[in-house]
Inverse folding.
């Protein structure tokens, strides 16, 4: 990897670096930011899972994910929308942590647009006949056979999650000196600071 460390001693460039890494994660399936980890609350415990990043709007600080509206995380998010996103790329040695809230979109303009833009392969999993996470006695009856389903009917189980963040923490590991910084928009105005790594 050729190192471009312009951001190393600049908060402004660090934020740009973070935004570029997340942006790259949308279409680059090799990027570790393509599959970040979304954490939510379930009662007093924390629930964590990998999700595929579908869209990133750096200006609005929104990440888009897709999920099954019958999955456990939907009820969890209805109870408590506070959530976080974590990604680490070992090749780049960069960790990004985002804190924010997630909104759920089922059968609205946002979900319709996302469904229309989805590929057949991605749409297929929403046709599974029961709720993801349900206990079953054997997995085979739940295997999806493309020829046997009407993929478009899966839309009724399709949900979009929009994650809005107001805190971004960046950590870059480097032997000669790690770099950790925090970008905080919670007062509607960006506050940037270095942190001791
Ligand atoms: C590489 C990878 C990508 C995944 N992408 C998604 C995704 O985009 N949306 C999703 O709901 N689950 C995705 N999953 C499955 C989730 O990690 C999780 O198992 C599932 O959503 C059930 O989570 P829940 O019970 O907390 O709702 C993915 C898993 C892996 C390993």
């Amino acid at each position: 990897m050729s190192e471009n460390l312009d951001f190393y001693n600049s908060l402004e460039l660090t934020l740009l670096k973070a935004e570029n890494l997340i942006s790259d994660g949308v279409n680059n399936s090799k990027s570790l930011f393509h599959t970040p980890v979304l954490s939510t609350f379930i009662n007093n415990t924390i629930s964590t899972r990998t999700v595929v990043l579908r869209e990133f709007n750096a200006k609005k600080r929104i990440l888009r994910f897709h999920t099954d509206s019958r999955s456990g995380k939907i009820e969890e998010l209805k109870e408590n929308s506070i959530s976080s996103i974590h990604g680490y790329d070992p090749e780049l040695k960069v960790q990004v942590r985002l804190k924010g809230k997630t909104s759920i979109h089922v059968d609205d303009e946002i979900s319709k647009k996302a469904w229309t833009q989805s590929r057949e392969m991605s749409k297929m999993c929403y046709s599974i006949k029961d709720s993801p996470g349900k206990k079953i006695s054997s997995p085979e009856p739940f295997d999806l056979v493309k020829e046997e389903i009407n993929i478009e009917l899966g839309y009724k189980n399709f949900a979009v999650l929009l994650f809005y963040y107001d805190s971004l923490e960046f950590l870059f590991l480097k032997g000669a000196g790690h770099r950790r910084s925090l970008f905080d928009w919670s007062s509607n105005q960006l506050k940037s600071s270095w942190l001791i790594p």
